[in-house]
């Protein structure tokens, strides 16, 4: 795992597949996504550098985002939050529906997901619906952005001008794009437009380099 600083309060934890983000409020930490199963020790090392993990926000149920949620949830004092539409899948109560692959995505997915371990069932303490305000930074609003999965969410820290998009948006080779492997591509594109309307200087994606500086404008150019 690589640990990279985006700002003094925001770090990215980059795994072999996907990534997670660590946000600092003094010694209290919020983890956005958990990476693949088996990432717990690397997350623990990062957490110990900065403080105490208080909450985990899962942007959606996919194995590369919720894979280590069960392990991290076992740590003392950690609260796990996810959207109510994805929560039963994260808990292992039912299987998640597969993406509606394009032919290109099917081949890409077979390469990217090769060897990715399934996410063990994990508890969800708080089921979100969208619109909630979380005590992260100067205040974070939960944004329901379905399409990649039914329960995909983003987080908008308006005062801090930071946006977490989950897999609705991806970055590759310096270019932003609608994230692949969607359950419903049209709904995902509509969700991208919702995120692009938000004021953000930094946008953090599930895959690819974060957009640091003018992120909102880059997102608006993408969907326009």
Sequence-ordered SSE layout with sheet pairings:
Blueprint: E1 2-7, E2 10-14, E3 19-25, E4 28-32, H1 40-50, E5 52-57, H2 63-66, H3 69-73, E6 79-83, H4 87-90, H5 103-112, E7 126-128, E8 133-134, E9 140-144, E10 153-157, E11 162-166, E12 169-172, E13 175-178, H6 185-196, E14 202-205, E15 211-212, H7 215-223
Helix pairs in contact: 6-7
Question: What does this 3D model show about the protein?
Answer:
By secondary structure, this protein is an alpha/beta fold. The strands form 3 sheets. A 7-stranded mixed beta sheet has the order 1-2-3-4-5-6-7. A 6-stranded mixed beta sheet has the order 8-9-10-11-14-15, with helices on one face. The longest helix is centred in the C-terminal third of the chain and has 12 residues. It is globular, with a radius of gyration of 16 Å. The model has no long low-confidence stretch (mean pLDDT 95).
Summarize the structure.
With 224 residues, the chain is α/β, with parallel strands linked by helices. The chain is built from 7 helices and 15 strands.
């Amino acid at each position: 795992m690589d640990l990279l600083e985006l700002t003094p309060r925001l770090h990215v934890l980059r795994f072999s597949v996907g990534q997670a983000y660590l946000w600092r409020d003094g010694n209290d930490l919020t983890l956005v996504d958990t990476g693949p199963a088996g990432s717990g020790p690397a997350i623990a090392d990062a957490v110990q550098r900065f403080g105490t993990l208080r909450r985990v926000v899962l942007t959606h149920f996919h194995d590369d985002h919720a894979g280590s949620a069960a392990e991290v949830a076992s740590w003392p004092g950690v609260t796990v939050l996810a959207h109510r539409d994805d929560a039963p899948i994260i808990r292992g109560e039912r299987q998640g529906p597969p993406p509606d692959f394009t032919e290109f995505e099917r081949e890409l997915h077979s390469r990217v997901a090769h060897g990715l371990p399934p996410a063990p069932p994990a508890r969800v303490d708080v089921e979100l619906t969208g619109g909630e305000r979380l005590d992260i930074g100067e205040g974070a609003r939960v944004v329901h952005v379905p399409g990649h999965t039914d329960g995909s969410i983003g987080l908008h820290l308006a005062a801090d001008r930071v946006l977490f998009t989950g897999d609705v948006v991806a970055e590759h080779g310096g270019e932003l794009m609608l994230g692949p492997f969607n359950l419903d591509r049209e709904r995902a594109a509509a969700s991208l437009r919702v995120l692009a309307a938000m004021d953000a200087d930094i946008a953090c994606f599930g895959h690819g380099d974060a957009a640091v500086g003018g992120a909102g404008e880059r997102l608006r150019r993408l969907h326009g």
